[in-house]
Amino acid sequence: QVQLVESGGGLVQAGGSLRLSCAASGRTFSNYAMGWLRQAPGKERELVATIDRSGGRTYYVDSVKGRFTISRDNPSNSVYLQMDSLKPDDTAVYYCAADLTFGAIVRLTPNYWGQGTQVAVSS
Question: What string of DSSP letters covers 3-66?
Fold first, then answer.
């Protein structure tokens, strides 16, 4: 089993930055593709960024390309999301996800996700 705990959310003004962290527990962290999902009130759950098992391949939704960077460190069972140039539309609860898939694929219903961390961006 994999347990995921997110941290690093908060309130920030538009144009600011946040770095989200995800601490994973489990013996097989390196077997999972990892990603970040987000959900805002009244909106569908959205896949934001993913990274494959080795950290060599990434995916970003178009709306965050050039602003967000996902990374992972398998020896420490950690995954990160660096968020720069934040916009009010980025406001959401962000969830760390682990999925037994291929490559950098993470599904909207992954095998595991955490409790979420709130990101609020004011205009």
Answer: EEEEE--EEEETT--EEEEEEEESS-GGGSEEEEEEE-TTS--EEEEEE-TTS--EEE-GGGTT
Measured between alpha carbons, how far is 123 from 101 in angstroms, rounded to an integer? 37
pLDDT digits 0-9 by tens, 83-113:
999 999 999 999 999 999 989 999 999 999 9
Which tens digits make up the pLDDT trace of 17-37?
999 999 999 778 899 999 999
Looking at the chain, the whole-number percentage of residues with pLDDT higher than 70 is: 100
Distance CA 20, CA 42 (A): 23
pLDDT of residue 92: 98
Closest CA to 22 of 34, 5, 8, 38: 5
Structure tokens that stand for 115 in this block = 């409790």
Tell whether the torsion through CA atoms of 35, 39, 43 and 45 is positive or negative.
positive
Do 120 and 12 meet the contact criterion of CB atoms below 8 Å apart?
A: yes
